Amino acid sequence: MTHIVYGVWDGVVHDSRQSADAAQATLPELTDFDEFDAGNPIRAFFGDRGFLVFDETVSLVDALFHYMEKAAEQSCGACTPCRMGTVLVRDALDKMRRGLESPLGFDDIEMLGEQMRQTSLCGLGQTCAVALLDALRNFRNKMEAETADHMPIRAQIGMAYMTAPCIEACPSKVNVPRYIDYIRDGKPENSLGVLLQKYPMAATCGRVCVRYCEQACRRKFVDEAVGIKTLKRYVADQQKGPNALKFTRDMIRKPLDPAMRVAVIGAGPAGISCAYHLLLHGYHVDVFEKSNEAGGMAQIGIPSYRLPKDTLALETDIIVDLGGRFLFGQQLGRDVTIDGLFAQGYKAVFLGLGCQAGTSLGVAGEAEARGGYYSGIDFLLSVHDHVDGIAPLALAGEVVVVGGGNVAMDCVRSAVRLGAEKVHVVYRRTLEDMPADHEEVVAANEEDIAFHTLTNPTRILTQAGRITGVELVRMEQTEPDESGRRKVRPVPGSDFTLPCDTFISAIGQQVEDGALVEDDGVTLDKWRCVATDQTLATSRPGVFAGGDCVTGPSTLIYAMAAGLKAARSIDDWIQRGTVRFFKRSRMRKLIADNRILANDVVEMPVRNAYRVHNPELDPELRKKMFGEVEQTISEQDAYAEAQRCMRCYRIYSVVTKHPIPEGAA
Question: Are 220 and 196 in contact (CB under 8 A)?
C-alpha cells in the first residue's frame, strides 16, 4: 500500500508523522500510486478533493504554485473571482517560492481561495482552491517554515492536468467543455477544430454516438445532461457548403519520405481514424477494404434514417483529400496478406477488421431455417443494398427480432420501413436492462414496435425451410448474484408460439477474418478476437490492431479512439522502435483506477433549463421512408444549449522525483 505521510482528502486530515495507526484507519485506498513512470516515485498528488503527500521533503508552496499556475492558465475569465483570484494567488506563491517579498500573506491567500470556492461561476474556479485551502488550514505551519528564511525553494518536478467528467468518460478524451465554449462564443469552426484533433468523423459521431460524456455530465444533477451529442452534430453540420473546411495535403506540416508507407486493413471507423492521424503525421497510407465503399459497420450497419450515407462519405473522403488511397475490393487472405504487405515495403500494418459476422442463437430449428432467416448484420446489409438500389428488399407479414442492443433496434425500425405488418422485439431481460441507446428504444416505441421482454426463444418453426413462427418461453428474474446483477431463468409451463414470416437474430457479432490473421502470425485471444497489448501492438512485430476486432462489438467512438491510439503507437514503432510513455494517459489511468473524480456536483448558480432536442420527423411519416429522422438544431438553440454547460473542469497535479518522459502533451 502507498504510504501517505500527510494530507487532506475529502475533508479528512491524515498525518502519519504523529499517529500512524490513527491515520491509517481513514486512509483512501490507492491503486498503482507508487510510481508515475518506471523508477519515478510519486511524491505528492493534488486535486479537487484535496492533496496527499508521500514524501515529507515535498514543498507545499512550490507544489501549490504549479497547481495554481495551471488554474490561472485555464481560467476562461468569465468571472472575477477565478480570473483575478488564480492570478493573484499564483503570483504570491511564486514570490514566496523564489524567496522574494510577497504582497500577499497566507491570510490574504486563504481569503482569495475562499472567495474563489464560494463565488466562481464554473467548476474550475470552485475546485481549484480546495487543496490550497486544505493546506493553509491544516498545514500552514509547514508552509510558513518553508518561507521563513526567505530563501529560494528548490523547484520540483511533475505535471498538471486539466480534465472534466465528460472528458474522462469519452473514449477519445475530447475536450467537451472547450468545444462548447466555442459554440457559446459564436465560433463553430473552432469548435469543430477541437473535435478534429481527435477524430475525422464528427458529423457521423454527432448522429450515432452513444454519449458516454452525457452519462457523466454533472448538469444531470440539476435538471438534464447537456446535449453534447446534439451540439457536436450542430457544429459538424455547419461545415457544409462553400464555407466547409477543406482537407488538403498541404495541411500536413512535415510530409515524410515516400518510403514511409503504412497499410491499413479495413475502412471502418477504426481504420479511417488510424489512417487520418497517420496522414497528419506525414505518412503515406493505403487503406485496403474488401467492400466497394468506406465506412465499415457505420456504412452497412447503421440505417440511413439515422446516418445518411452522403454524410458518412463526406467524412471518409477526408482520407483521399489528405493524400491517402482507398483500395477497394481487396480482401485479406484473398487479395492481400500481411506477409505480402511487408514484402511490398510497408513499414507497419493496422488491422481494423471489425465484427461483420453474425452470431447464431443455438436454438432448435435454427439450422433448418433458410427462407426468412437473417442474422442482424446480414439483414442490415440487405437494408443497405435496398436503400442503395442494389438489391430491392420488401417484407410482409410479421417480423420477430431477438436482441436488445442498437443493432436490434436498427433491425426493427428498418423492418417497419420495409413494409412489415407487425414487428416484434424479443429480449430475455427487462426493458431497463436493454443495452440499446434509450432514445432508440423510445423511437421504436413511437413507431409501434411490440416489445416482449423477459421472453426467450426456444425453437424456430419452419415449413419446407421457410420460417413460420417461433416458440418462446417467459423468463423471471432471480435474486441478485455476487455482482449485484439479477439473472433470469425460464418459467416452467409458460411456453407460447408467436407466428412470424421473418426472423432476425440480432444478439451479437464476431470477427469474420480471425482465422486469416491467425495464419499470418497474429495471435487471437480466447474470444477469437485479435490479442493486443496496451499499445495495441499484436504478437507480430509491426502489426497493430484496434476496434471491434480487438474488443468485440463495441461503439463507433471506441473504434475511433483505438485508431488514434494505434496511429501514435505506429508512429513510435517506425520512428523509435518502441512506444513512448504518454504522461496524460498515465494521469488518466491514475484518475480512473482510483475513482478520483467524485460522482457529485459542485453547487453553482444556474437556473433550471431543460435541454434542447433535435427536431424529428413525425412517426407516421418516417415509418414510410429511410430519410433522416432527426434534424439539426438551429443556431439559437445551439447557443442556448451551450449556455447550460457548467464547465466542470478539474485540475490534478503530481510531484515526482525525476522528470517525466515527454510523450503526448
Answer: no
- DSSP letter (8 states) at residue 78: S
Structure confidence by residue, pLDDT tens digits, 488-545: 999 999 999 999 999 999 998 877 766 778 878 899 988 888 999 999 999 999 999 9
Q: Which helix (H) or strand (E) holds 230?
A: helix 228-237
Neighbours of 464 (CB within 10 A): 8
Q: Are 556 and 562 in contact (CB under 8 A)?
A: no
Q: 37: buried, middle or exposed (CB in 10 Å: 19+, 13-18, 0-12)?
A: middle
Q: Which residues pair with 594 in a beta bridge?
A: none
CATH class, domain 360-507, is alpha beta
- What is the Cα–Cα distance from 104 to 583, expressed in whole angstroms? 34
DSSP character for 64? H
All structural domains of the chain with their residue ranges: 6-164+649-656, 360-507
Question: What are the distances in angstroms from CA 100 to CA 37, 147, 579, 649?
Answer: 34, 9, 43, 32
Helix/strand/coil (H/E/C) assignment for every residue in 80-132: HHHHHHHHHHHHHHHHHHCCCCCCCCHHHHHHHHHHHHHHCCCHHHHHCCHHH
- 204 closest CA partner among 231, 181, 224, 233: 233
Half-sphere exposure in the Cβ direction for 76 (13 Å, CA): 21
Instruction: For residue range 83-118, list pLDDT tens digits in order.
Output: 899 999 999 999 999 999 999 999 999 999 999 999
Q: CA-CA distance, 65 to 493, in Å (whole number)?
A: 71
What pLDDT is stored for residue 665 in this prediction?
Answer: 42
Rounded Cα distance between 474 and 212, Å, is 32
Could you tell me the three cell numbers for 565? Answer: 491510439
Residues contacting 615, CB < 8 A, separation 6+: 630, 631, 633
Give, in words, the CATH class of 6-164+649-656. Answer: mainly alpha
Residues with pLDDT less than 50, the chain = 22-23, 25, 664-665
Q: Are strands 509-510 and 12-15 parallel, antiparallel or unpaired?
A: unpaired
Q: How far apart are CA 61 and CA 148, in angstroms?
A: 12
Residues 6+ apart with CB under 8 A from 606: 222, 644, 646
- 496-499/50-53 β-pairing: unpaired
pLDDT of residue 447: 96
